[in-house]
Amino acid sequence: MRSTHCLPSYSFGGHDVFDAIPKFTKLYGKSVAIIGGETALSKALPHIRPVLDKAGIKVLDIIHFGGECTFARGKEIAQMASVKDADFLFAVGGGKAMDTVKVVAIELDDKPFFTIPTIASTCAATSEVAAVYTADHTFDDVAFVNHPPVHCFIDADILVEAPSRYLWAGMGDTIAKHYETHLSARSREQDYNTQLGLTLASMCSEPILAHGIQAYKDSQANKRSDAFDTIAMTVIFTTGVVSGCVPMAYNSNMAHAVCYGCVTNKETEENHLHGEIVAYGLLILLTVDQQMDELQRWLPVYRELGWPTKLSQLDLTASHIPRIVEKATSVHDIDVSPYKITADMLTKAIQYMESLD
Question: DSSP string of 224-269?
Fold first, then answer.
């Protein structure tokens, strides 16, 4: 068990959530460099700047992160004088912006950073891990900060104005966290941190089963509701806590492996969101693992939400199955499993899903 384990902290609400900024930044200094996406910055800055000005926090720079999280861009930003001089950093936007700031923080010897998510699509705003890509958007590696962001400011009034497809895909990725962690952990002795994460993992799926459809409808209408707030927190916060508690190898399994197999097809990679494809991969996991009651529990939700249950919904055909399973069985995501996952298992599971009405 890790001797030191830091859990993320957050403030949740509407635009007034930013009033808490001085309370959490005062221990770190009086200057900030703000890094984020162009759209995200345009949404958040009008609500952040007045608070910073009133608190006497000097904004040394506002930087567009570059559109992709790469080691090269992280190092480039870290070399900027304004970023070096800042007492702390703000990461504003979606997962790629958050992860870029994590790379910057690593480069600057663990410089403190705070997060302000503007879409409810990933747990990047509360997690310790950064998914790093190459400039041509190919996965490169993961990087780890020593602790989660100092604090996460979650403004649901901004989140609900974002395109609803981000929440839609984020829910798909989030429910997989429950099933993948439990599959990876099965038949293994677990320490306290892992037991905590596995217990919380059900909170990655059950709220979505109960409230996901309503939350998505409210997101489409840009209307905040209890359902929307619950699901936004499930995607952003609960998943981040679970990810930090369980071993890294437990965080991904068959659902993600199938996703990586599907995106070997260019049209799938270009036209579909990560969480959408992971949601499909989860159906394959449940089928391979013979969790048929769970499969039947989720299928009505999938159909109501429009999540893919067939290859055709991901621009795929039966001819792609060999490539999908070849890739899926080659990735490390399935290394920690209770049994050997074979190409034949995955093929039969995909074919089973294709046979359903």
Answer: --HHHHHHHHIIIIIHHHHHHHS-GGGS--HHHHHHHHHTTSHHHH
CA dist 159 and 149 (Å) reads: 19
pTM of the predicted structure, to 2 decimals: 0.95
Q: State pLDDT tens for residues 336-346.
A: 999 999 999 99
Q: Look up residue 310 and give its two tokens.
A: 């067939």
CB 168 within 8 A of CB 220: no
Give me the architecture of the 10-161 domain, per CATH: 3-Layer(aba) Sandwich (3.40)
Tokens of 6: 């830091």
Quick: pLDDT tens for 299-339: 999 999 999 999 999 999 999 999 999 999 999 999 999 99
Instruction: Give the pLDDT confidence score for residue 350 in this predicted structure.
Output: 98
C-beta separation of 17 from 153 below 8 A: yes
Q: Is the CATH code 1.20.1090.10 the one for domain 164-355?
A: yes
Dig out the tokens for 305 from the structure. 């939400």
Binding site per annotation, positions for glycerol: 173, 256, 274
Q: What is the pLDDT of residue 1?
A: 61
Nearest to 164 by CA among 117, 125, 217: 217
Burial class of residue 110 in the structure, from the number of CB atoms within 10 Å of its CB (0-12 exposed, 13-18 middle, 19+ buried): exposed
Binding-site positions for NAD(+): 95-99, 118-121, 127, 133
Domain ranges, ordered by start, for the chain: 10-161, 164-355
What lies within 8 Å, CB to CB, of 115 at 6+ separation is 90, 91, 92, 98, 101, 124, 125, 126, 149, 151, 152, 153
Contact 171, 123 (CB under 8 A): no
